[in-house]
Write a structure and sequence with these properties.
The structure holds two protein chains of two kinds. Chain A is mainly beta. Helix content of chain A is 0%, strand content 51%. Chain A has no helices and eleven strands. Chain B is built from no helices and eleven strands. In chain B, the strands form two sheets. In chain B, strands 2, 4, 5, 9, 10 and 11 form a six-stranded mixed β-sheet that branches. The chains are: A mainly beta, B mainly beta. Chains A and B meet through strand 5, strand 9 and strand 10 of A and strand 5 of B.
Chain lengths: 113, 112
């Protein structure tokens, strides 16, 4: 099992450009999450999906949109990238609504110039 | 408002020593306290976790001590090894799957 995979690993964008971060899990988990990690800030939840077909805002959703394409895949889109969105983005999954353990992907390092 | 405060920000320990990382929380609704370990270039991975009905949990060289009345919990790494060098995040979770608050992380370096 690959666990949680993310693409791309690195990306550089110019202000105003758009892009989609891809995430897939092969553990048959119901819940999926997008976090961003910034120095001194820990991990902050952007969006989550409790199950296929549902998505909800987390702590820092502004400037982002998500799509739960199917049970395996959960994508994060930046419509108009801003320098404040320079960060490392992690996708995670957990077994179900009460899933305590979150399994994280390797991350995408995004720089917005 | 930061609900989980973690200290220190960085820590250097000699091989064989004890590494101690502390966290304090405010929300008494938290009912699950995991610690995650993150190596450079990798995503965080669950290391050990505790529920508030126990005061201590040990798994190998890793121990969580929990003080419910003080709303504090800590991670102790006994006989620290260079391979333990990583960033450690404490977290606190309540009820729903999305309600996880992470600490700001501690970068541990174990020197030979």
């Amino acid at each position: 099992n690959a666990g949680v995979t993310q693409t791309p690993k690195f990306q550089v964008l110019k202000t105003g450009q758009s892009m989609t971060l891809q995430c897939a899990q092969d553990m048959n988990h119901n819940s999926m999450y997008w976090y961003r990690q910034d120095p001194g800030m820990g991990l902050r939840l952007i969006y989550y999906s409790a199950s296929e077909g549902t998505t909800d805002k987390g702590e820092v959703p502004n400037g982002y949109n998500v799509s739960r394409l199917n049970k395996r895949e959960f994508s994060l889109r930046l419509e108009s990238a801003a320098p404040s969105q320079t960060s490392v983005y992690f996708c995670a999954s957990s077994e179900n609504r009460g899933g305590r353990t979150k399994f994280f992907g390797p991350g995408t390092r995004l720089t917005v110039l | 408002q930061q609900q989980v405060k973690q200290s220190p920000q960085s820590l250097i320990v000699q091989k064989g020593g004890i590494s101690i990382i502390n966290c304090a929380y405010e929300n008494t609704a938290f009912d699950y306290f995991p610690w995650y370990q993150q190596f450079p270039g990798k995503g965080p991975a669950l290391l050990i976790a505790i529920r508030p009905d126990v005061s201590e949990k040990k798994e190998g060289r890793f121990t969580i001590s929990f003080n419910k009345s003080a709303k504090q919990f800590s991670l102790h790494i006994m006989d620290s090894q260079p391979g333990d060098s990583a960033t450690y995040f404490c977290a606190a979770q309540s009820g729903g799957y999305q309600k996880v608050t992470f600490g700001t992380g501690t970068k541990l370096q174990v020197i030979p």
